[in-house]
Specification:
heterodimer; A: alpha/beta; Rossmann fold; 6-stranded mixed sheet; 7 helices; 36% helix; globular; B: alpha+beta; 7-stranded mixed sheet; 13 helices; binds adenosine-5'-triphosphate; binds magnesium ion; ABC transport system permease protein (chain B); MacB_PCD (chain B)
Amino acid sequence: MIRLQNIEKVYRTDTIETLALNSISLDVAKGEFLSIMGPSGCGKSTLLNIMGLLDTPSKGDIKISDQKTDHLSDKQLAQFRNQKLGFIFQSYHLINDLQVLDNVELPLLYRNTTAKERKMLATEALEKVGLSNRIKHFPTQLSGGQRQRVAIARAIVGRPEIILADEPTGNLDSAMGNEIMDILINLNRNEGTTIIMVTHDENMAHKTHRLVRLFDGSQVQ
Amino acid sequence: MLKNYFKIAIAVLRRRKFFTFISLFGISFTLTILLVLTAFLDKVVGDSYPDRKRDRSLYVTHLQESGKDGQSSSTLSYYFLNHFVGSLKTPVKLGISSGYEGTNTYVNNKKLAVNYKYTNADYWEIMEYDFTEGKAFSKQQIDNADKVAVISEDMKRDYFGDIPSVVGKYIEADNVKYRVIGVVKNVPITSYNLYSDIYLPYTVSKTDFTKGKGYLGDFTGVMLAKSTDDVPRMRDEYDAMMRRIPMESKQFNKMYSHAQSYIRSYVETGNESSSGVTIVFTAIVIFVLLVTVLPTLNLVNINITRIMERSSEIGVRKAFGASSGTLVYQFLVENIILTFLGGLIGVVLSFIAIQVLNSFRLIPNLVLSINFTVLGIGLLVCFFFGLLSGVYPAWRMSKLNVVTALKAQ
Ligand SMILES: Nc1ncnc2c1ncn2[C@@H]1O[C@H](COP(=O)(O)OP(=O)(O)OP(=O)(O)O)[C@@H](O)[C@H]1O
Ligand SMILES: [Mg+2]
């Protein structure tokens, strides 16, 4: 599903160069639930962003669904992300000015859909995360766990083949975290969605199919 | 899609009340100034009452003479207009009138300031004054030096009060009684070459304008060509005449005077080296630039701040499939919504401002109004504003790297 070959990422500032990723090669199979662990600053987010085409590597190739991605234009890239990828962030990144339903509809806005379809699909996605009774709320009126469930609904509303989650339970207590984890596991099991998740929590990681460990930008396991 | 943009635009505007206020204030205030200015210009140079034959008229308003010891510049003498300009072949008519002059008259022992001007007979045939009663004086009456007068509606009301007809009644000005033979609709004072309260035959003046051979005096002329096609020829003939006629006196060695279109004559100072046209138009352009550019820059600045604080939203939208182009479009739509709101307020403010200006009667006989041209211009300005102040910030933020955008918060 995703194939990374010799990915290297160097951050250059005026004074220093940081080698955030050092020759990472990784294959993620279709339907796999993969977790990435490692100490803070080891390059987990960087790796995830590169897999999600939010960032470009300094060296190396990425193939998603057997498609090379390095030559895509801004527009094609946007479309690619819209069709294939869904993101979940540690700090939710909901748009506070919009109601829950509008937040969830967001990815559909960038597709050919009618308002009616969008509403239907978004409501459906919210039902899956158990929040269909909160569609008129604004994000600030929800708890952390509820917000993250809205974010998951937003990530799955467009039925992407791949979901990238950067510490989705990082801001939540363990009960809430487990709830979120269950949603992801079900998503993986029932819909066959490929999920890649960064986590600091060994328990969470052990619930996934495979664990990749990073240390200082290199893969150690 | 648009509906969604509208939703977020309104939400953002409501969240940032202060920014919104500043933006709206800037836009509406600018627009108000522009609209009132346009209404004013439109009235002053656009209104063609009573000289409806402008397109085939040329105006002769100034003569500048210069020599070693200096120069003098002024309106013209009756002699100059009648003798030289009157001899031209292309004009079919030559209207001659003096600038208006003020004097006092008394109604029931109350002092009343009035302006009067002298005209010849052709003047009334070139100008299309609307007569509410009576008519203009004829060549015959001028030649007889009949003491007759055409007065404005305001003059009629102020002098005679609210009575239906005043033709045949007498009006006194400068201790002379004149018989009223016609009443015309008011001309605003801004059309200063045509405005007056009382119009008199030039022959009734205590000064005999036909005597003397000086070139400079109180008069201006309007030449009427047979058709618009003849206007250039008329202008050329005038210039040829200027080259031909002798210097007024030995102290001068150069003379300048041109037959000009209404607009040019309106703003002309009569000084060749610093043309009034240039000055007036430069002034207007600078004013408009100041009035529009400064608020636009300010808006650009506000917009940048406003958009940058939404970088998380930008990051999210990009992550979920918005291209840079889509984002630019979204922010432009938002900005245009904002400017149109400001525009709406501006239009309302302009109506109020114009009502106030009209009710104070700051300028005699000048009634401003907002017509569709003015409104159209206003809306265009708004749209232009919206684009101008939105494009740069929108473009800048759309180039934001997704990861950076998401991190900033
Ligand atoms: N924009 C940037 N400019 C310079 N250096 C950066 C930038 N982003 C990340 N880095 C560096 O790259 C390295 C990896 O960062 P990354 O965010 O991927 O770590 P992480 O494993 O996700 O850490 P955490 O668990 O704390 O989220 C760090 O050393 C970080 O300082
Ligand atoms: Mg991280």
